[in-house]
Design brief:
It is a single chain. The protein is an all-alpha fold and 291 residues long. It has 16 helices and no strands. Helix 1 runs parallel beside helix 15 and helix 7 packs parallel to helix 9. The relative contact order is 0.16.
Amino acid sequence: MTMTSLPERVGRRCQDALNSLHSTVYFAPDLEVQLADHSIDDPMAVYLAGRSAALGPVGSGVVTAAFYGFKHELIARHIPRVWAQVSPGAVLEMRLRAADATLRRHLGEAVTGPEMAEAAELALRAARAGDRAGRPLYSAHADQPVPEEPHLVLWYAATLLREHRGDCHIAALQNAELGGLDALVSHSASSSGMPKEIVMSKRGWTEEDWAGAQDRLRARGLMDAEGHLTTAGVELREDIEAETDRLDRAPYETLGLADVTRLTELVGAFAATAAATGAFPAELLQIFARR
């Protein structure tokens, strides 16, 4: 299949909505509360354990490779130590319980409505069409059992589709010869990027690391002296997103235009409800508004 069978960015818009709903768990306290019972109370340890648990009790090197944009020393501070405190299987169960609590809190009666069941069916059909080859996080999550309740099926499918695109994005970044930090710095400098302060606080990089990445981007003609992307830098970021779209097309091609549009509409409404009930921090809502 080629990208011509769907209009440009249709799949990306659908994935943006799905990723917003999926990410509610990362901003909720539910998983952190459960892991605190196992003496895991560092927020970064909670994040790393929750997202990497599907890979099994792997070492820090595997997680660094799969996550790409995180400093290895930050990951090594927590992985594999967390697996001595709680098993990956137990974390996956806790994560699903956290998703259940978060979605029920922010979506209310919608979790049992017909629109939820419809969205779950569409999202799962899309998620099952992903390509495992070269996509480790997608494949690891695809190995997990499908939940029974529709709102959890939707969250499970959103997880798969989020990781599928993420794995595709890493391939596009490597093809563009952008390492993890250089990719973050260039994205932060773009119009839709995360603020530097958020990236620095969540990924483990230092000011020295950041400045070094800026120097490398300047040497390639991708960034100017003030830290803004040059025309070449903007074009490269656009090319990377387009290549990610191309690599990530199979789930949305499988649904077809009408069903992709319907899934985007349904999940977008759920994400808007979650936002209205306080699921996301204010700075993230500002980023959503710019997209």
